[in-house]
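Bumping with the actual sequence this time:
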Amino acid sequence: MSRKFTPKQIEKYKRQKYIAAIEKCTKNLFRLFRDKNSTFKDYQKKFTLIKKDLDKFNDIKLNSEYLQKTKEYIEELYFKTIMNKNFSEDDYNQIKNKQLSNLNRLQKIKNRTKYSKEKYKNNFFK
């Protein structure tokens, strides 16, 4: 007995997979930038693999501000570092801290939309 999925269900499934891939990418980038022993070669290898996974989902529309900004950040970082042939190990070591703070800013956007005081305020003041 095979089950037929509606186009809406398929789209929702693809969007969830895309969101999971974006989250995986940011977590791996954060780990790479935080690690003192990570090299540009490690970064290049890992980021290229993750970016290939993300490119599978390019046709999916993202509604969330956090997801849109994260996608833009990943694209920009990829072109600045991986696609730039002049980017070196020294450049990589110089941008690590800056990119960590950029990832933290993106996480703050996510957390801001995740928790709303107004939602819980009503429970305490009834």
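The tokens above came from a reply further down the thread. The CA atoms of residues 57 and 77 lie 18 Å apart.
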